[in-house]
Amino acid sequence: MRDKADKRLWTLSIVGCVIVVVTVLFVSVKIETNNTKNRIHSMMEYIKDQYSMYNSFNEAVEARSLVRMVEKVQQTARNFKTDRQALEKEYLKQYAREQRLTGIIVLNDKNKQIAQYHTGPRFKKVLGYVMEKETLRDVKNYPQKSYMARIELKNGGYIDLASYGRKDAKGTVIGYQYVKTEYAKNNNLTIQNVLAGYKRENDGTIVITNGNDIIASNDEKLIDTKVQEDSIINEIRQSVKVGQFAIIRNGIKQYFTSLDKGRNYYIYVYAEDRNLVKTLTSNIGIAVILYGIFVAILMTIKARSNQQYERIQKQREEEYKRELEKSAKEAKKANIAKTEFLQRMSHDIRTPINGICGMINVADHYADNMEKQTECRAKIKEASHLLLELINEVLDMSKLESDEVVLEEIPFNLNSIFEEILGVIEHMAAEQNIRIIWEEKEVTHWNLIGSPVHVKRILMNILSNAVKYNKENGYVYISCREIPSKQTAMTTLEFVCRDTGIGMAEAFQKRIFEPFAQEHAGSRTKFAGTGLGMPITKKLVEKMGGTISFESKEGTGTTFVIRIPFQIDADMKDRTETEEKTETSIQGLHVLLTEDNELNMEIAEFVLQNEGTVVTKAWNGQEAVDIFRKSSPGEFDAILMDIMMPVMNGYEAAKMIRSLDREDAKVIPIIAMTANAFTEDKMRAKEAGMDEHIAKPVDGKLLVKVINELVKRDQREKL
Q1: What percent of the chain has pLDDT over 70?
Q2: Are 193 and 85 in contact (CB under 8 A)?
Q3: What confidence score (pLDDT) does residue 653 get?
Q4: If exposure means fewest CB atoms within 10 Å of the residue's CB, which of 64, 118, 407, 481 is most exposed?
């Protein structure tokens, strides 16, 4: 019997091992495929966004350059009117140098060339072709009309050209400026720059085409080649739809692939599935080892159990009656011993398993060089922090540029905001031995109506820059002054921030509010900036109806002046008195807590129960609706509602509760408790019928205060 049991055990072990390996194989393939899909999708979205941004930037640069060219030619034409000798070569030479033009050409009313001067190449063939255009020559008939164009050259350079009617006589003045190849490349953002940092061995091969030619790739051998020359790309074009993730074969190799399309370009990504095989091998090996350890433990336990059984059986044969009771006790002791043994083994096994798993991950990535491992970890941490910051700020910038930012109109105390910000800034300044000097000037109204979140963001950006770009042992002077407004119940607050920092060069001062602008090439690394803080600040100030100005001198420091109009909160005194009289307590209240995350549920339950609150838990929106529907009228005093939940989200649940045909459903306080913390999220919560919005991580004191205020309000309304 025992032999048969052993055979069954071994058979089950083998079958179990096969099942585990097959399961690991299936799950690994699924996980690796999904990871690759997500990585490729993320790359596609990033490349599309950057390509669009680069195009917009280059188009803006070109437009500004052409506008400046028109201004230069207009000025030259005005000089002709005041200077009778203007057509002489010496004077043309002078005008060309003053306006930094490569050449000036003057036509009479018959469109014949009567004067010219060139400081560089004449480009007779190109210019002759352009000057034949009727639109260029027609400007002489219209005093306010001008013509401008950019002529791309085969060498990679270009000519910016403009024409304007003469002021001294009937005719046309033409000016042009030649930009060399190397300068043109430096002055423009190229799509190849988008692919910087993408390595073929990690990210696969990325190819960007204009339809026929490959214009950019992280494989330099493919750049400037024809699409038709790459067999893998041709396979993707035939087999994969735009926006689709697919797996294709090319010869004996298998590739993960995707294709996407922009306005005038295509993006191809393909990666060989070598990482999948590597991961599969590693995971299967780990699974087999762990299963072997598990089987070994089971066999050890079985062996010990068998020994114990044989000993008991022998004792039973020798002294059946006398040892019957004793054998029962021994069996009980054996079960206890087995339980304790399993507990000890569980602890002892988990420790090396954790070590094995961790070391396998380290070995897979940095197998040979421990110094490089440490260096890479530090760099990854630093880069991840900067990326988090660029994204947050890019999102903010994107919302501002698309006019999606919603400004609140709520009461707030400006002095409280200053105290909060100064606490953070003073900590930053202490690390560089920088002194913070705060001065309040003639401020009467601290209680205002506006958007406190965005006010805080503006002040934080300005003050943090004043510290970041300061000198050691320097100072930051901050003042606030109230400027009376002619409008009733309105006032204007003026903020001044002056530092003793590195200052800004005159050239950079013109670009300070441009996205991603930084004065020095290495400043993004040295000061950990994204170049988006000042553009965001300016847009927020202007959105609030305010102004921002500055003065700066390189090596001396910078002074910012911000003026923002606010509505005066005339009811703050009454509101404060009411709040002071109200006791903040939620003891004895019955709260319906709706949260799908177990950890968040535990934290919220602890906060509420610690305040003496009775808590009923619901794990999704539908469960919350069902519990409330079945409850007696007035049984619950308030509802805390998470937003992102399975089955039914918080918005839908709130609407459903408000629609129930019972009196307390209309008035019971419903509070959103969610990680969705944007202003638009708060507004959406209000629209769904919720009374308040508390962002995670939850401030316990704030939660208690809000519940107390809403319940008291509800009680007053019932009276």
Answers
A1: 71
A2: no
A3: 93
A4: 64
